[in-house]
Amino acid sequence: MTQTNPGSTTVSLEAGTHWICSCGQSQNFPYCDGGHKGTLFQPLALELDSPKLVEISQ
Ligand code: FES
């Protein structure tokens, strides 16, 4: 059983690099969709060496 915190999203991610939104403007949260352009925010690179369930807080 996976418990999640309110305001968070749990996603199943494959191995590789995933670009996570840090600005809160993405229409495809938790992934960066370029909505940060014009702000001081940059997406966070999440690098996984194997598939994982990841909880990401908003
Ligand atoms: S859309 Fe939020 S960091 Fe890119």
TrEMBL record:
SMART domains with a match to the protein in the record: ZnF_CDGSH
Keyword Iron-sulfur listed: yes
Lineage: superkingdom: Bacteria
Domain Iron-binding zinc finger CDGSH type: 6-42
Pfam families listed in its UniProt record: zf-CDGSH
Keywords, comma-separated and alphabetical: 2Fe-2S, Iron, Iron-sulfur, Metal-binding
Keyword Translocase: no
GO cellular component, one term: cytoplasm
Gene Ontology molecular-function annotations: 2 iron, 2 sulfur cluster binding; metal ion binding
Protein name, as recorded: CDGSH iron-sulfur domain-containing protein
Taxonomic source organism: Romeriopsis navalis LEGE 11480
